[in-house]
Amino acid sequence: MVKKKQLEVELAHLRGRFEALFAHSPDLNYFIDTSGQVFEISSAAGPILRFTAEQLQQMSYLDLVYEQDRVLVEQRFASVLSGEVQRFETRLIDVDGVPIEFEILAIPVQEGGELVGAFGVARDISRRKDVERQLLASEQRYRALFDDNVDAVLTYDTEGRFVAINHATEVMMGYDADELIGQPFLPYIVPAMREYTIEQFMSVKQGDPVQYETAMFNRAGEVVDLHITVIPIMVDGEMQGIHCVGKGITKRKQLEAALNDMAYHDYLTGLPNQRSMNRHLAELMAAHLPFALYMLDLDRFKSVNDSWGHETGDLLLKSVTKRLAARIPQNARLFRYGGDEMVAVLQSAEESEVMRFAEQLQELFEESFVIKDHEVVASASIGIATFPEDGDLIDTIFRKADNAMYFAKQHGRNTHAVYRAIAREGEEQLLQLEIELRGALRAGEMSVRYQPQVNLKTGALHGIEALLRWDSPRLGPITPEDFIPIAEESGIIVELGTWVLDTACAQLADWRERGLGRLKVSVNVSIHQFYHDDFLVTLRRTLEKYAVDPTQLVLEITESIASNADLVVTQLIELKKIGVEVAIDDFGTGYSSLQYLKNYPIDYLKIDRTFLEEMETSQADRDLIATIVTLAHNLGLPTVAEGAETEAHIEFLRAHESDFAQGFYFSGPLTAAQFERWIAER
Ligand code: C2E
Ligand code: CA
Ligand code: CA
Fold first, then answer.
1. In this structure, are 242 and 287 located in the same domain?
2. 440-491 per-position pLDDT tens digit
3. Do residue 602 and residue 654 come from a single domain?
4. pTM, full prediction
5. Domain check: are 248 and 287 in the same one?
């Protein structure tokens, strides 16, 4: 009796616990009889499948299973009925027929030794599945980024050892992943870059992403130049490792080297060129080493070209070069300046030596040249200027040698002239010009012309370049090439430059008010203006005065300005802040390093017109244009090609994807009124 009572109490306890479990579980609890009829289904979390109790009573368990999963679930149910516990995942449907993922536990239920059905729990796992899927997707995305990346992608631990590398890394480095993993990366860096690379690594360890350029050895011992982006992997504020993306820039570096090589050498004669000469002169001047500069110009070279053809002209230049190069003394160097002009630089302060060398140069022409069975008699006129006597700027020395050379030409050719000897006459002329120039602006003799720049891809007008003109009533029109150097030397350029900027901005405002649209205007800025204290102040004031949008203005500066690194960079940053754009003018003629292109905020590269000029005859100039464009694009800079005169030029530029062009093919420099007509006609 007592025992039975005890049993009943225990049973009641059990039922209570069981019911509590049944009623409060967030999962679905069910009982299915052997026929498959659903008897009980409940969840404390509310109706998950949203069927009513009445509906459920009419249903077989299979009605709750998503159609495509039914066969599977039937098999499972059969197993349960044969006495096995089953656990599996399947999809059930809610009242709207929408499948939901569940994990099912099914336990066979026996009563009096007989199987009466299945009891179990169905747990909604759709959220977990979603997370799993997302994880998988992000893993796949990461893998795609890692495995299929064309750049090297690597992971290091915080000690700088390889943890994972992708296929591109294997290809780039020539090692298999398992050869590298676990190894420190530092020994693979070329020795010269190690210290710098460690510095970068240290700053990543502070938790900052960094970018830098370095170089590694590949398996074959070749140097692989790399642009590196390094990102620390932070988990809960702690660094777990370092991701690194390495872009191979060997090709770009080679391009740069090729450009340098091409840029410093003359293709035809193999002599170092003008750029190279400038560099040499700058070095001598910096070291205060006295020298004499010989400007050597072949007499009547044009008539050789005209009567025998370009090819013969080229061969003559080669022969002359060969003869000169063979006799040049140890303390002298020879350069091809361009066309039929050569420059010799003799390092000497001895006047007698300077004169003797001039005579030796002259004598080299006494014997005639044999070109393709023709006997060609050639001679040269030579102009000489010396450092430091004639000045302390390359331009000054050069111009003086050039003047002396012209003097020699005018005095019978096949002779030489020393600048100092002819100076008085020349200086007087220059002084006269300078006096005229000082009064020119106030006398209203100056004007500005505008030359269109065209977008080669769309054919649309890109902008215009403002070019200064001087028409002197006493001296006639004087080209900028003649008066700009004098303006620069005398300081008048600052006043002139300010006036051009003012005039161009006033013109923009006028066009805006008359509804001619928003034009971009490029203004040339001389080195003397650029370094003038008031330059930025004047610029800002002018923009405000005419309410010109700064993005409409482009300043053209020459390479020689840009190469003056420290001074220029602060100015450029200020210009960027104002919103004014900057173009490097006459690119390819200066003697600056290419480094600044990468580091400075520059917007356009203008390819000097001499490249197009000589394009037809010189493969080197064609190569150089193509290389400059590629290099510029590599650095994210659009190019403006100057001196586009012919259809052939335009075709060539299009083929090499130069972005913009300027030149007589479209139009020469125009007055504002002419330009308005030009636009209207297009
Ligand atoms: P730049 O800045 O290289 O200007 C382009 C020069 O090339 C202009 O000569 C222009 O007339 C000329 N040009 C344009 N298209 C062609 C073409 O298809 N073929 C040829 N052969 N030449 C073409 P411009 O006007 O005589 O100016 C000469 C130089 O004087 C300019 O060269 C620039 O360095 C300087 N300059 C002109 N105006 C100013 C100025 O306002 N300020 C300063 N600082 N310099 C100026
Ligand atoms: Ca220019
Ligand atoms: Ca130019």
1. no
2. 999 999 999 999 999 999 999 999 999 999 999 988 999 998 899 889 878 8
3. yes
4. 0.56
5. no
